[in-house]
Amino acid sequence: MKMLSIALKDIWRSFRSFFALAFMFGVPILMTLIFSFLFGGIGSEDGFEIPTTDVVIVNLDEGSPYVSNFDHEGGVVNSMGEMLINTLEEDTFKDLMKISTGTESEARLAVDEQDAGLAMIIPANFTNALIGQSSSDAEIEFYKDPALTLGPDIVKSLVMGIVDGFSSTTLSIDTVLSVLSDQGISLTQQEQMALVDSLTSESENQMQDRGVGLEVIPPSTTESSGDDPIKAILRSIMGGMMIFYAFYTGTATAQTILQEEENGTLARLFTSPTDMVTILNGKFLAGFLLIIVQVVVLLAFANLAFGVSWGPVLPLGLFSIALVILANSFGIFIMSLVKSTKQAGIMYGAVLTFTGMLGISSVFVMGSPIEKAFNFIPLLVPQGWAMEALEASWQGNLGRTLLMSAGMVGWAVVFFFIGNLRFRKRFG
Amino acid sequence: MLNNAIKVQNLDKKFDEIHAVDDVSFEIKKGEIFSLLGPNGAGKTTTIGMISGLRTPDAGEVWLMGYSVQSEPKKAKAELGVVPQEIALYDDISARANLNFWGKMYGLRGEPLNTRVYEVLKLIGLEDRQKGTVSKFSGGMQRRLNVGIALLHQPKVIIMDEPTVGIDPQSRRQILDSVKHLRDQGVTILYTTHYMEEAQELSDRIAIMDHGKIIAMGTHDELIDIVGELDRITLTISGESSDVLPVWQKLEGVQQITSEDGTLHLLVKDSNQVLPGVFEAAAGVGVRINSVDIQEPNLEAVFLHLTGRALRD
């Protein structure tokens, strides 16, 4: 009963502390909100939407004799610039960008006055450069509103992808013509145009098959964040933040032992008919209960506010229990190593931040070339095991969740044993 | 039947090379106010730390209401209330929340707890501020709450470690009155202070500590008698001192007269008996007395006599 009284007192004090609440709930939620706004804000009932970008295209492309009356998407184009505009005007992209055309000055003015998010200026030698008839490179200029990030950048990378497709097509044509020439075969201009048409269509199909983010763009109507990359990203971020700050909560709660030692209340507790084991266990229980509240609130918030699905209940429950135990015992261990709250500050600044960032680093290297290396490195720290367990949990992989959760509990047992032993020795 | 509330036997504690408490023994009777008087660093806090079970002695034993602090700590501590020297409160919650929590630590629950919290708030004069956050209280209010916590479970023994350090006169008076009130209720109090006036005003018995040892112990009068100090009468006069000095020297009870910059100092056995004769003799030779200051022997003088140092050195 006394143990519960000590725990409830610590919990009550934590809920009255701005900093404790900020670290428990505020910062993880804020970080996820920031990312959600980066991805276009909190969506409607349909989920998240990447905002439509107004794009003004300035087509200065002078074309080439080799590309004239070219049949493209049921129309006739006379330059690769026109072909690019036609491609971008397809229905597939209508939710991503709203295309208009104009002069260069009109386009820049539109961006400056924030009537458009992006101006795309196709240079005069665009076609010639693509088909190898220009001595200089052609570079599409993107003039964007600096206040906007995601929308214009997605359009830019999409255009670059399409242009790369054109480039590879012309390279393929050159190669085919070269091979045919070596074999003494020459094609008529009509045959060459048919070949260009065939390879261009093939390239566009491949582009669409690869996605280039096209599958990401439409507003999601599905419930599962596993089917919605934006929600999946937010789930990773919220999951990472939750793990990172659960460890903070565990450490902050254990730090109250040092605070109470310094302000004399711990000594006063020791003069009451309450034994040391009860006092320490009360402090440990407070951390345990606080992290439970934190994890439940963050999981529920992410689900309700962002539509994040955390996967099946059983693995999620297993992970959550393991996280609570691990974060709490890690805090006890860390705080048992220091002598004062001043030293505890170093633990927050260095050890907790370092291990935390390392543990959830997989969130930040997703899709990057070093992603594979980070399959192993996070497992050097307990937070990494928690992140792995969470990922296995939302994938519904009960076996792996069990394995990783068992690992977490293993870490926790070691931390608790050492921390508890050190505290008992200190106050015994 | 047990007569002693506290029994301390051959208590000893060293911190590295410092002998903080050196073979200290004393007994405190039930209902007694016993003061440990001594300068900072004398070993008072270490002694009460061992009595309250906060520190483990290197040697010796302590009994509270017959329970050994070392072998029956829970029973012993249940009889004890401690007012620490430093304010030991949760300053981010209310006064009432503090009292509720500490009451639970002493085993109070439900209605008895609510009743005691109310009574204590009234006793320490904080019933109007019970919902206020402690960090917003004045130093004196915090001190009073610090005392109130020790009274919650109505202990038979209370240890107060310099409870009036650094507070305003009003709060100091309130604390001293509450100590007397507790004594009237039969509570045994072990009080440490380096204010001799407090020890003098409150104590039934006083132990003077220095360098970890008890150098003198007894009632106020017994301590004064030990050192045999005299009353000191300081006078300023109009007229020739040479006229009056021979007359005063012949008065019964006057031991010594010294003159310093026109001020006369008389060392006498009992100033109340000597003073009328002093005035009569002065009037007889035409000397007018302008001012009189009487200093009775005090604990400061006793400490000075025993150690060669002032109490506040």
Q: What key attributes describe this structure?
A:
heterodimer; A: 428 residues; alpha/beta; abc type-2 transporter like fold; two-stranded antiparallel sheet; 15 helices; elongated; B: 313 residues; Rossmann fold; four-stranded antiparallel sheet; 37% helix
Structural summary, described in words:
- The complex is a heterodimer of chains A (428) and B (313).
- With 428 residues, chain A is of the alpha/beta class.
- Chain A folds into two domains: 2-42 and 225-427, no CATH class; 53-210, abc type-2 transporter like fold.
- Chain A contains 15 helices and six strands.
- Chain A has a four-stranded mixed β-sheet, with helices on both faces. Chain A has a two-stranded antiparallel sheet with strand order 2-3.
- In chain A, helix 8 packs antiparallel against helix 10 (276-306).
- Chain A is elongated and about 100 Å long.
- Mean pLDDT of chain A is 80; it is low at 210-226.
- Chain B folds into two domains: 4-225, Rossmann fold (3-Layer(aba) Sandwich), CATH 3.40.50; 230-296, 2-Layer Sandwich (Alpha-Beta Plaits), CATH 3.30.70.
- The two termini of chain B are 43 Å apart.
- The mean pLDDT of chain B is 87.
- Chain B contains eleven helices and 14 strands.
- Classes of the chains: A alpha/beta (428), B alpha/beta (313).
- Chain A binds chain B through residues 1-2, 5, 9, 12-13, 16-17, 263-265, 267-275, and chain B through 52-54, 73-75, 77-78, 80, 82, 84, 86-93, 97, 101-102, 104-107, 109, 149.
